[in-house]
Specification:
Elements: E1 4-6, H1 8-24, H2 28-40, H3 44-63, E2 73-81, E3 84-86, H4 91-105, E4 130-136, E5 141-148, H5 150-154, E6 157-161, H6 166-181, E7 189-197, H7 199-209, H8 221-234, E8 250-260, E9 265-272, E10 279-282
Parallel strand pairs: 1-3, 2-4, 7-8
Antiparallel strand pairs: 2-5, 5-10, 6-9, 7-9
Helix pairs in contact: 1-4, 2-3
Amino acid sequence: MFKKLLTIEQIINTVKELFLEAVTVLPEDVCNAFESSLKVEESPMGRSVIQQLLNNKDISKSEGLALCQDTGFSVVFIEWGNNVYFDGENIFDAVNEGVRRAYDEGYFRKSIVNDPVFDRKNTGDNTPCILHFEMVKGDKVKIIAAPKGGGSENMSAIRMLKPAEGLDGIKAFVLETVEKAGGNPCPPIIVGIGIGGTFEKCAMLSKKALLRKLGVRNSDHRYAELEKELLLEINKLGIGPMGLGGRITALEVNIEYYPCHIASMPVAVNIQCNSARHKEAIL
């Protein structure tokens, strides 16, 4: 069978271009969600905030400037086809080089420290990235760049629920997490929820859920209904745009799930700020 070859420079350049665009251009689905929310937000202050966010995304795109001063931790998802060869030794190094070039070329803020507790010295180039790598069938490679700001990440949470807590326990945890976050993650937010797997798997699922296009429901109708119900309940909290009050606290709720142990029901809530930045390419 024909094997496709990808070079180091292809990976580096693709990652670089993805981050240059992701940091400066808001995805179309998010822009559309802003436009729709502007029509239903009843708070004058809330409408003003949403309009400012729409103005901000236009300026960012036209001027090539960052949507937010927090240009995020560089998170990368790669789905690598099993019929694709790589001519280098280390894909992680190639991805980091792409991140490094993007943040230098774009004059984006570098926000990563080398040690979480003791040194806390800035690495100076926004590396290392967080890389989620998955082997899949085929001759394609999908790369997703998803810069994630610290403010919204700090408001995220994980809880190891007991199976007996059931659906009510999940709903209560999600609403508690969003209500506790308040205006800190810069709403209107997107709420990514991971359910099942293990401690680390549900956290990864919650972040991956943020990448699904807004308005596209989970393929399982039960989870799709739960997404709609949670979105409705979150928008009854009254937090509103930027926490200043109003109807639109969240633009969307996306859920991803995975099989889990009979004794467990892990749930993770990953909150995404209004700068819902991500961009993908297929090689």
